[in-house]
Design goal:
Blueprint: H1 5-14, E1 22-27, H2 32-47, E2 51-56, H3 63-74, E3 81-85, H4 86-94, H5 102-108, H6 110-113, H7 116-122, E4 123-124, E5 127-128, E6 130-132, E7 136-137, E8 140-144, H8 145-150, H9 159-171, E9 175-177, H10 183-208, H11 212-215, H12 218-231, H13 243-251, E10 255-259, H14 264-270, E11 279-283, E12 291-294, E13 296-300, H15 309-319, H16 321-331, H17 347-362, E14 365-367, H18 377-391, H19 397-411
Parallel strand pairs: 1-2, 1-3, 9-10, 12-14
Antiparallel strand pairs: 3-13, 4-5, 6-13, 7-12, 8-10, 8-11
The protein binds beta-D-glucopyranose.
Beta-D-glucopyranose is lined by residues 28, 34, 60-62, 85, 136, 263, 294, 296, 371.
């Protein structure tokens, strides 16, 4: 095309001087805090002249998004980039569906800055197949500070202190625990409860090694008993509630605590709340040394054996240190690179970064069962089913233990 003065003026006016294409991005970041974080990424790409076709699929934890993805791929219409977790990434990689990002990874030195625990889920056969956005962790509790202060409750350090605090709130007529009864949320709480009940060796044996003895143990029964205590201290309308609406109950002082991953912090920030003043973040009692992590990544689907310019630009934007800081400050997660300063992060973010580094070096960093970093989806979903059935009173704890052993063995 011959660029005349008038075409140049028109291009400048429309702001699309660069003729780069679009990226279509499938993700499940639909809550207020999540959308605010996603806007940081959209803005980054728009500044490079790359258009963003949004493909949001609501549903925390991404179960629904993964169903939609399978349908799209089966129909021969894979999106450019897809938010995904742990074993799902490895699964698509093994199927040969993902683009090889080694060129951009080598150019930008990902090998040197992305923690080993994340690389394990971002590479297949020595090839980078996805771009890590962040590190979240599931063993957090979020509390309304005014509610705790009004009831003379200090941050509980042990399970017994936690149950005492819950009982105090209950006696005062406050909903102790904000919860959304969805399988992935029940499982998220179970991550922390199992870790706290049995410690890191138990967590690893049961959820990562799928050791039958650990799955069928008295410790597992005790973990289910603790889940029953939690069930007894949620409000009557918990069933089916979205996680961010449960967070809103804590934000508004309708409930004392929520046990949820640190994406919950994004909701507090989005509501204009400040950590330490309006809300408190602390590790689930009894798991202060441990971090059960999950990392959001963007897989790039193979488009005829080449990585498109837009895919390369997206991958490189995601791993840039400035994006890693700007995005994760808003999202509630911590950077997926070890060389990003904690300066821009609030107190919870600084703690998250310090906890992650400490847990990684002391052997206390474990993949989250609930968020696809302990097992492939078949096993994860089998555990979900048992945990949810027990939470909803279908099984007593002894039966839940038996069902868990059976379900995990069938799912492998
Ligand atoms: C993702 C988070 C997301 C959360 C709730 C988790 O699996 O890692 O990024 O905010 O689900 O949707």
């Amino acid at each position: 095309m011959k660029l005349t003065t008038s075409t140049l003026a028109a291009l400048a006016f429309s702001g699309t001087l660069a003729t780069a294409g679009d990226v279509e991005v499938l993700h499940w970041w639909t809550s207020g805090g999540e959308a605010a974080a996603l806007n940081v990424l959209k803005g980054d790409l728009e500044n490079q002249g790359i258009g963003w076709q949004d493909m949001p699929v609501a549903g925390g934890g991404g179960t629904e998004a993964m169903t939609v993805l399978r349908a799209r791929v089966t129909a021969g219409d894979a999106p450019t980039a897809v938010q995904a977790l742990g074993f799902d990434i490895l699964d698509w990689g093994a199927q040969g569906a993902l683009a090889d990002l080694n060129e951009v990874a080598a150019k930008e030195g990902w090998d040197d800055v992305v923690p080993a625990a994340l690389q394990a889920f971002a590479k297949h056969d020595g090839k980078w197949i996805s771009a890590p956005v962040n590190v979240h962790s599931t063993n957090w509790v979020w509390a309304n500070k005014a509610v705790l202060d009004a009831n003379g409750i200090a941050v509980p350090q042990t399970w017994d202190e936690f149950t005492a605090a819950v009982e105090k709130l209950s006696a005062a007529g406050v909903t102790p625990i904000a919860h959304g009864g969805q399988a992935w949320q029940d499982a998220t709480v179970f991550d922390a409860v199992a870790m706290s009940t049995g410690g890191p060796d138990f967590y690893k044996a049961a959820f990562i090694d799928l050791d039958e003895e650990a799955l069928g143990s008295d410790t597992m029964k005790e973990a289910f008993d603790r889940m029953a205590f939690i069930r007894a201290n949620v409000d009557d309308n918990f069933s089916g509630r979205d996680w961010n609406l449960a967070t809103a109950m804590v934000i508004n002082g309708e409930a004392g605590f929520q046990m949820m991953g640190d994406w919950a912090k994004g909701e507090f920030l989005n509501a204009g709340k400040t950590p330490g003043e309006d809300f408190l973040c602390f590790r689930f009692p009894g798991t202060q040394e441990q971090v059960t992590f999950n990392a959001d990544q963007f897989m790039m689907f193979d488009q005829g054996g080449v990585v498109s310019d837009e895919q390369a630009a997206l991958a490189s934007a995601i791993l840039s240190p400035s994006f890693q800081s700007a995005f994760n400050v808003v999202k509630g997660s911590v950077p997926a690179r070890t060389d990003v300063s904690n300066e821009a992060f609030d107190a919870c973010g600084k703690q998250g970064m310090a906890d992650l580094a400490a847990a990684a070096s002391s052997g206390n960093l474990f993949g989250s069962m609930a968020h696809g970093h302990a097992n492939p989806a078949s096993v994860k979903n089998a555990i979900y089913d048992v945990v949810t059935a027990h939470f909803n009173g279908e099984y007593d704890s002894a039966t839940a233990v038996e069902e868990l052993v059976d379900a995990v063995s069938i799912a492998q």
